[in-house]
Amino acid sequence: MTNKKGLKDAYSLKTPQDSIDLYRAWASTYDIDFAKKNGYQSPILIAKYFEKYSFIEDTPILDVGAGTGLIGECMKLSSEQEIDAIDISPEMLETAKSKQCYSKIIEADLTSKLAIEHNHYGAIVSAGTFTYGHIGPNALDELVRITKPNGLFIITIHSKLFKKDKFDKKFLEMENIISTPIYHEEKVYVSNEDETHGQDTVLIAKFRKK
Ligand SMILES: C[S@@+](CC[C@H](N)C(=O)[O-])C[C@H]1O[C@@H](n2cnc3c(N)ncnc32)[C@H](O)[C@@H]1O
Question: How many angstroms separate the Cα of 120 from the Cα of each of 123, 188, 201?
Answer without folding.
Answer: 9, 30, 31
